[in-house]
Amino acid sequence: MAPYRIRLYRDEDYDAVRSLFARGIIEHAPAIYRHVLRLPRVQLGLLALFTAVRAVCGCWLLAVGAMALVLAAAWPLMRSFGASFVQEALVADLLDIHSSYMRAPDSCFWVVEAGGEVVGMVGAAPSQDPAQHGKAMELKRLSISKEYRGRGISKVLCEEVLRFAQARGYRAVVLFTSTVQVVAQQLYERQGFRKVAETSPSLFSSLICFYLIHYRLDLPGRP
Question: Which pTM value belongs to this model?
Fold first, then answer.
């Protein structure tokens, strides 16, 4: 596997960055699907469906078939749910990466290059929370290509953002990840981030118990 280097974003990275981000989010669709199937209310619903169909039709094969149909229909719904996050990002800050990060004050975007390809990325920008204005910087869009995970690249990118924020006088770095991104949660917690809140981005998210987890790390010497 080719060695990697971290460098500042360039305009020629645009398509690769957007593609990497989209792949990284869509990869979580199976995890969202499993998360939903583990919910007690969903399991009870499937059991109720099985029982009702068997009682009405008197055939357990039809009952199993009804459950299979519901499970099959749920998969594209979960994939579409993940895709909605991708679309929001692609028409927000990732629509014009240069303006969002490279020209904007106290913002930056880095990519990880290996073998002439972009295999990782991360952004940093001031927090949009009015209460944190001028105090906290947000770590955004961290993503690593599947082939390059497990090499400590995410940790190095986190550290890059922490140094960037501290050099500009920010008191903390904040970020958001989701319920199903367990590996990301473990990474951030090893870096010293702590959970401060959970929010649901939509009514549907609430129904499936899918939350955005807010993390915060106070920078040394700046309480």
Answer: 0.88
Phi then psi for residue 101, to 5 deg, are -125, -35
- Residue 118: C-alpha distances to residues 75, 78, 112, 142, 184 (Å): 30, 28, 6, 13, 20
Interatomic CA distance for residues 20 and 6, integer angstroms: 15
Structure token pair of residue 42 = 């969903």
Give pLDDT, residue 80: 85
Alpha carbon 160 to its chain's center: 19
Q: DSSP states of 41-105 as a string?
A: HHHHHHHHHHHHHHHHH--HHHHHHHHHHHHHHHHHHHHHHHHHHHHHHHTTTTTSHIIIIISST
Q: Which of 14, 24, 17, 9 is closest to 177 using CA atoms? A: 24
Q: How far apart are CA 82 and CA 8, in angstroms?
A: 28
Q: Nearest CA to 168 among 216, 217, 134, 132?
A: 134
pLDDT digits (tens, 9 = 90+) for 155-174: 999 999 999 999 999 999 99
Residue 141 C-alpha from the chain's centroid: 8
- What Å distances lie between residue 78 and 2, 42, 82, 180, 210, CA to CA? 34, 14, 6, 12, 11
Judge whether 137 and 175 are in contact, CB under 8 Å: no
